Amino acid sequence: MQIPHVMIVGGGFSGTALAIHLARNATAPLRVTVVEPRQTLGAGVAYSTQEPAHRINVPASRMQLSGDEQGAFDRWYRQQPECSLDSVAHCADGAVYPQRGMFGRYLAELFAQAVLQHPQVTLRHIQASALAWEGQQLLLSNGETLEGNVLALAISHPPPSLPRALLPFSAHPALIANPWQPGVLDNIDSHASVAIIGTGLSMADVVASLATRQHRGPLLAFSRRGQLSRANLSGEWPEWTLAPQPQPSTRLWLHHIRAEVARAAEQQLPWQRVLDEVRAQGQSIWQSLSLREQQRFVRHLRSWWDVHRYRIAPQVAAEITQRQQAGTLRVLAARLAAIASRGDQLDITLHTRDGATEHHPLDHLIVTTGPGHEALTASQPLLLSLSQQGFIRADALGFGIDVDRHSHTLTRSGQPSQNVFVVGPAARARFGELMGLPQVADHAAEVARQILLSLHIKHAERCPPLAP
Ligand SMILES: Cc1cc2nc3c(=O)[nH]c(=O)nc-3n(C[C@H](O)[C@H](O)[C@H](O)COP(=O)(O)OP(=O)(O)OC[C@H]3O[C@@H](n4cnc5c(N)ncnc54)[C@H](O)[C@@H]3O)c2cc1C
């Protein structure tokens, strides 16, 4: 009998976590191949950065591969020489915020362990990109073709999409369209005038990276609302229990959460504890809303939710505050009204939210609007090939790929494709809160369970199944 074969495209956190969960839980022989062009597995877009200023945005104790190994990364990190060498990682309350690359290294070690500890599952990494799906075969950039029983897509973060007004300037020397590319910030002069489009997490990464390069020139960050990601909370705080809220409406939820924040404040508890609880219940809240209400959330509330929910490490927040206080960083609610080239520089005109017009000559304009999730299914040849053949389709909210409650992709006509799965944040239109590590880790464990079920392989019962 042939050993079933699971093909995973993408070896960032989601694909690697899925492979490890399959290895740990398959009770019969299985082959698992992870196709990933990076040299090591586990890092993906978030944890492959070698920038020392890029830190995990929650304490290490909250990063894990599965719910039953809480604190494992924190313990591992504290045993590494980097922990004592990186004094900035340590907060006064004892929490550590390691450089993001350390988490990638940790996952690569877990994968290597899984290869050794679960010999009945053959785990393999092919260092290549998957280019197309043709005649039941996956075509790879190294010339190999793969055939298998299950295809799992673990591709979450495409490069940032360039705002339309910037398209004619895509090759301009002053424009940095993708700040994640290694080395792109290295040639910025320490006195250069720099503007950043976007004021979220990627902007915080850029400000922190410029600080390590001793940049002290004028820095202007702008977005329509000019909202900065909030800082993470230090210290130990009691948990908050949300009062029940049965109304399936975005507006009522907003009122309810505001009232809960006020109630918490009366007890001297910070808003972050309330939001943490909303986030913990995020999947069930999201799934109780109709598509119309979800669309309302995306239109009116998402940018507010994002800056409160995706918080930044205290070290990065301190750098931003320090530059704001020194007057070298301005954060503005404004939209880009015009842009023109002047030699190697760019001139931009901004219309601010309070009605003023500002002109700025710039040495560099950096785009930090984040991954172009709305264009994921058209962002690369493999996903285009799968959508053209009708195996996948974009979801209705512009988050990624449409899936059913078992994470099967939905075909062009809305039917589940039995052997194609999505693992990780690309499935979040269905599940809601599916971006931070704890939820992505749980999702990978659940998709492993679904895949084993579809292959009629019994799952090793280590922990109770998650509610779908
Ligand atoms: C910059 C950033 C920082 C973050 N920081 C934190 C944090 O501090 N804490 C936290 O809890 N969460 C954080 N997150 C969120 C979270 O951890 C990520 O969403 C999670 O890592 C998702 O990983 P992924 O594997 O699904 O996707 P990705 O990271 O996008 O990985 C996908 C992988 O697929 C590969 N790939 C793509 N196309 C192909 C193809 N055709 N063939 C083969 N391989 C392919 C890519 O090379 C990539 O390695 C962060 C996210 C980002 C983007």
TrEMBL record:
Gene3D superfamilies on file: FAD/NAD(P)-binding domain (3.50.50.60)
Keywords annotated in UniProt: Plasmid
Record has RNA-binding as a keyword: no
Ranges for domain FAD-dependent urate hydroxylase HpyO/Asp monooxygenase CreE-like FAD/NAD(P)-binding: 8-157
The keyword Cell cycle appears for this protein: no
Source taxon at top rank: Bacteria
Positions in coiled-coil regions: none
PANTHER family in alphabetical order: BLR0577 PROTEIN
Protein name: FAD-dependent oxidoreductase
Biological source species: Pantoea phytobeneficialis
Lineage: Bacteria, Pseudomonadati, Pseudomonadota, Gammaproteobacteria, Enterobacterales
